[in-house]
Write a structure and sequence with these properties.
Low-confidence stretches: 5-10, 312-320
Order of helices and strands: HHEEEEHHEEEEHHEEH
GO biological process, one term: ubiquitin-dependent protein catabolic process
Family: Belongs to the peptidase T1A family.
Mean pLDDT: 83
Protein name: Proteasome subunit alpha type-4
Number of strands: 10
CATH superfamily: Aminohydrolase, N-terminal nucleophile (Ntn) domain
CATH architecture: 4-Layer Sandwich
InterPro entries: Ntn_hydrolases_N, Proteasome_alpha, Proteasome_alpha-type, Proteasome_asu_N, Proteasome_bsu_CS, Proteasome_sua/b
Main location: cytoplasm
Largest sheet: 5 strands, antiparallel
Distance between the termini: 121 Å
CATH class: Alpha Beta
Radius of gyration: 35 Å
Strand order of the largest sheet: 8-1-2-9-10
Amino acid sequence: MYTGLTWSCRKMSRRYDSRTTIFSPEGRLYQVEYAMEAIGHAGTCLGILANDGVLLAAERRNIHKLLDEVFFSEKIYKLNEDMACSVAGITSDANVLTNELRLIAQRYLLQYQEPIPCEQLVTALCDIKQAYTQFGGKRPFGVSLLYMGWDKHYGFQLYQSDPSGNYGGWKATCIGNNSAAAVSMLKQDYKEGEMTLSSALALAVKVLNKTMDVSKLSAEKVEIATLTREEGKTRIKVLKQKEVEELIKRHEAEEAKAEKTRKTRSRRRRTNEPITTSLLISVATLYHLVALVLSDNDLKGVDKREQGLSNVHVQADIYG
């Protein structure tokens, strides 16, 4: 009886990471954590919220010269007239979720004759994703999404959701490979209240250039989409390769200029170092000479005082 119970406990302990509905003794759902780990190996995706728009930028890994880009979009999907999303993770899972997002948005538009609010669409999908972590016989979706959109309630918005069904609003964030380094750069360079769409594009190219595992950034490996408002309508635009190349060239020119300035300052610092060192040596030498003179004068004063005291003693002996 005891042996069977022990075997049963060991067998159950091995099932903590094979079933989504069983918590480990530490209170963890390993399958959900494994799904999040899958996102860490996907291409980098980032989003930046600006005063006059929103952008999504993503790394494209599936590059082939025979690929028809008209019928294939690996990273960025249009959901309705006011929203788009970018994905990181398993592409097939992303296709299922984006189709569901489009259906939810179309049903809402058909029923209420107005576009669905951005957060409501994100919440509806996150409810589905959370259900796949709660019921048996299912696995979590191995994909994380970034959403950009506009509605009459909150204007431009940026959201991010993960396989657990959790979501949040962001000013700038990143998912996928090297996301921690990208978020650190966004924290450092994002200027709240001053960020325009053009500066956001420059920042996105800078972050991708630093975080992508490539020797040189190219337009073929980057997909960028912007969402703006023009004449009372939302406009979602996917940048062409020529436009992305212009952004990359501009970034490279700024980097070269900054590097040149850095080298010039370093050269000036090296040139000034010998002068500063010689001045320090001269001041130190002068200080040492002054100290010697002062000490010599002090010694002479001591000798004179001692000589005076000896004369007094001699006179005292004579007249004693």
